[in-house]
């Protein structure tokens, strides 16, 4: 007896992607400086939060110090300026709460290699240094000035590390996964 069915075709192995579909080069490994960058981000946040807590606790003496160094003698003007200084302290507290949340997302995005996070760190470091140096013109107690200068030094170190060639290469434009944004319009 012979079979009337034709023979089955041979099973082909799964198709391999064409070499042009694969990445031309593998993404670079995480630079060693990335952990130091995160440590400096956390150190900056810790210094800022510590100053905020101390400022809230000592707000009356700080406001009095500022008023005394402005040499304001008019009681009405003095009270108006007092309210603005207290509002500044409250704004600092709210700002630090927001920055704490932003830093958490920033650190996560840095470890994932997101270029937008890298650019935000550069921007935050540079703007923070300028802001902390400009705030030295305001009448603050010496201990606050020292803390703010320490924070500026931490930000300068952060800016230095984030601009190293290995870090720049890790976050280079065009690498796979670097320009991914969660809420970008297509």
Beta-strand segment tally: 0
For the termini, the CA-CA separation is 64 Å
- Sheet with the most strands? none
Domain count: the total is: 1
Order of H and E elements: HHHHHH
The averaged pLDDT comes out at 84
Number of helices: 6
Show the helix and strand layout.
Elements: H1 33-57, H2 59-70, H3 75-111, H4 115-134, H5 142-162, H6 165-170
Helix pairs in contact: 1-3, 1-5, 2-3, 3-4, 4-5
Can you describe what's shown?
The chain has 6 helices and no strands. The protein has 186 residues and is mostly helical. It has one domain. Helix 3 runs antiparallel to helix 4.
Keywords:
6 helices; mainly alpha; elongated; 186 residues
Brief characterization of the structure:
With 186 residues, the protein is an all-alpha fold. It has one domain (32-170).
């Amino acid at each position: 007896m012979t079979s009337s069915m034709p023979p089955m075709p041979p099973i082909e192995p799964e198709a391999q992607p064409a070499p042009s579909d694969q990445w031309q080069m593998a993404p670079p490994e995480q630079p060693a400086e990335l952990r130091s960058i995160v440590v400096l981000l956390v150190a900056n946040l810790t210094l800022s939060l510590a100053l905020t807590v101390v400022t809230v606790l000592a707000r009356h003496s700080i406001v009095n110090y500022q008023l005394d160094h402005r040499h304001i003698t008019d009681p009405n003007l003095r009270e108006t300026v007092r309210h603005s200084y207290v509002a500044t302290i409250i704004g600092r507290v709210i700002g630090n709460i927001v920055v704490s949340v932003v830093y958490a997302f920033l650190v996560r995005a840095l470890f994932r290699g997101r270029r937008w996070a890298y650019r935000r760190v550069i921007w935050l470091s540079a703007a923070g240094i300028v802001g902390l140096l400009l705030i030295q013109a305001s009448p603050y107690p010496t201990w606050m000035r020292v803390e703010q200068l320490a924070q500026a030094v931490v930000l300068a170190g952060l800016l230095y590390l984030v601009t190293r060639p290995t870090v720049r290469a890790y976050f280079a434009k065009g690498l796979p996964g670097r320009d991914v944004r969660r809420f970008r319009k297509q």
